[in-house]
Amino acid sequence: MSILKQYLTLLAILVGIGVVAQSVHWTNPGPGILPGEYCNAENTTFQAGEEITYKIFYQLNFIWLPAGRVVFRVEDLGDTYKISCTGRTISAFEWFYKVRDYYESIIDKRTMLPLEFTRDVKEGKYEAYNHFEFDQVNKEVSSYKKRPGKAPQIEQHELSDCIHDLMSIIYYVRNKEIENFAVNDSFPVYLFLEEEYPLKVRVIGKNEIKRFRGLGKYKCHSISPEVIAGYQFREGTEMNVWFTADKNRVPLMIESPVSVGSVKVVLESFRGLKHPFDAVYFDD
After folding, report:
1. In the chain, which ranges are E strands?
2. How confident is the model over 63-88, as pLDDT tens digits?
């Protein structure tokens, strides 16, 4: 079982607020890009050079064990950003399960929508390679899938408007103003993971003050995303997510049971943030 895959699913689904598919008329589209007002998102929360690292913990009985580490990086490619994620289990956990994973998304700066997505994973004895090319204008995606010892599979899928992949949705929604949503409101999410998943996210807290073990006390927002039953999660599983209530909107911690056990993802370090990190709360 892939601890990184569980983590990516947690982190990707957690931030779907505001990605609502609807019928919109677009004008003067560029190749593979929707320039309409609904899909456009001004990036005010991150910049090239940002690097954020998370530590993954896996619960064994009543003990939380450090299991892996994930690093997100942002690079400037002119009209696009390259967002990459490298994940691996720590050496002490590899007797149980070894992970060497790489995820990459090329997103358009004007819309924050994905143009390409790549997944190259080695998880225990399992290896897989996927590459998606999104045509946001015609609402299609070309999917290339390769597994060891098998012929490549090439497929075409129809999509809703403004569809996101595992990586792009994180950075797109970091630019959404959570203050515009009411507590207990639910919002639809449209995510492509080899097929399209319509999900919902519920806002459960705004501008909370919460202490995180090992991190300190922060001003944060919290949400509870609907998860994909059977995709590493049991039916009825609930997830809790906290992210900073500052201009960076960095995810701080995720907690959720998975198909076997529980996973906790905790912020470990960051650098290259666009804004000062103002979410730390100091008692008077």
Report:
1. 51-60, 63-76, 80-89, 99-108, 114-123, 126-135, 140-146, 153-158, 186-192, 196-212, 216-225, 240-244, 251-257, 262-271
2. 777 888 889 999 999 999 999 999 88
